[in-house]
């Protein structure tokens, strides 16, 4: 669905992206994860044709991005971080206007508004919407023409837990319909939950690319944390789960019946990101 070969790009004399290669399969939810300034939005802009002065090969939906025509935009939906809505038009008027730009048949506006709990606000001006309401409206704007590929920049950013859940469910719904979804996010738990594969991006380069499960299993070791009472004070220590049978201190505390609590924990994608890139996601 998406092929990127030997991609290089710079905003100035300094090469920001150098010789990048990756593929995204049809029907998968693919996440670009990285801290602020890593290059996630730059990549989305290259894949959606906003930036075209790159070198290398970029193919999206079998279209070489150097030769894309206007009909390319009939097949992709874009929801970038900042809503692009007409503030003086109502939600419904906005959706009607953007629908009119497509040649293809567009989706039912009321159904879309209902899917993000905005049907009762359909006739309110977008300018009077809260930030979260604008995000939801901008999201369904990207679905109007039922695109094959969706590009979403930070889709859950700034949403409360209920709306964030709804957004993730709608993204998973698109995947069920066979759509390909490319998301950028700082949010590792969202990425672990919805992405089939993720790429860790730092300083314009991919540092790792795999399923969240494989990244966690290959790179991280599950840990055991145990506590015991010593001289009336609670003490805590950890060891690797695989080594706990031969961990002398833990074994002797257990045989003496001194352990007061013990639990194991798997590393999170966030731990793996720090391990692989040496960076945090902020
Ligand atoms: N139009 C531009 N001109 C010059 N430099 C730019 C431009 N847009 C982005 N950059 C620089 O390119 C780098 C990558 O920016 P980009 O917006 O792709 O990062 P990001 O990973 O999407 O960050 P964030 O999570 O904060 O949105 C940053 O150092 C940024 O300052």
Automatic annotation (TrEMBL):
<dbReference type="InterPro" id="IPR027417">
    <property type="entry name" value="P-loop_NTPase"/>
</dbReference>
<feature type="domain" description="ABC transporter">
    <location>
        <begin position="2"/>
        <end position="228"/>
    </location>
</feature>
<dbReference type="InterPro" id="IPR050763">
    <property type="entry name" value="ABC_transporter_ATP-binding"/>
</dbReference>
<protein>
    <submittedName>
        <fullName>ABC transporter ATP-binding protein</fullName>
    </submittedName>
</protein>
<dbReference type="GO" id="GO:0016887">
    <property type="term" value="F:ATP hydrolysis activity"/>
</dbReference>
<keyword id="KW-0547">Nucleotide-binding</keyword>
<keyword id="KW-0067">ATP-binding</keyword>
<dbReference type="GO" id="GO:0005524">
    <property type="term" value="F:ATP binding"/>
</dbReference>
<dbReference type="InterPro" id="IPR017871">
    <property type="entry name" value="ABC_transporter-like_CS"/>
</dbReference>
<keyword id="KW-0813">Transport</keyword>
<dbReference type="InterPro" id="IPR003593">
    <property type="entry name" value="AAA+_ATPase"/>
</dbReference>
<dbReference type="Pfam" id="PF00005">
    <property type="entry name" value="ABC_tran"/>
</dbReference>
<dbReference type="InterPro" id="IPR003439">
    <property type="entry name" value="ABC_transporter-like_ATP-bd"/>
</dbReference>
């Amino acid at each position: 669905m998406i092929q990127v070969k030997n991609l290089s790009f710079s905003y100035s004399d300094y090469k920001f992206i150098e010789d990048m290669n990756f593929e995204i399969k049809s029907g998968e939810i693919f996440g670009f994860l990285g801290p602020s300034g890593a290059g996630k939005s730059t990549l989305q802009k290259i894949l959606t044709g906003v930036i075209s002065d790159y070198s290398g090969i970029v193919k999206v939906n079998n279209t070489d991005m150097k030769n894309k025509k206007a009909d390319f935009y009939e097949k992709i939906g874009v929801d970038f971080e900042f809503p692009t809505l007409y503030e003086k038009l109502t939600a419904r008027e906005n959706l009607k206007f953007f629908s009119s730009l497509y040649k293809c048949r567009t989706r039912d506006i009321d159904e879309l508004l209902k899917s993000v709990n905005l049907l009762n606000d359909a006739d309110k001006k977008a300018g009077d919407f809260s930030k979260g309401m604008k995000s939801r409206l901008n999201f369904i704007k990207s679905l109007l023409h039922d695109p094959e590929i969706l590009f979403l920049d930070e889709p859950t950013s700034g949403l409360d837990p209920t709306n964030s859940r709804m957004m993730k469910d709608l993204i998973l719904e698109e995947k069920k319909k066979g759509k390909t979804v490319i998301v950028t996010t700082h949010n590792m738990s969202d990425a672990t939950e919805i992405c089939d594969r993720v790429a860790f991006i730092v300083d314009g380069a991919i540092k790792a690319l795999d399923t969240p499960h494989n990244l966690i299993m290959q790179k991280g070791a599950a840990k055991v944390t145990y506590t015991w009472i010593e001289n009336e004070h609670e003490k805590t220590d950890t060891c690797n789960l695989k080594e706990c049978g031969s961990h002398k201190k833990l074994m002797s505390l257990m045989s003496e019946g001194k352990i007061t609590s013990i639990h194991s924990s798997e590393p999170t994608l966030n731990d793996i990101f720090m391990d692989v890139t040496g960076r945090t996601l902020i």
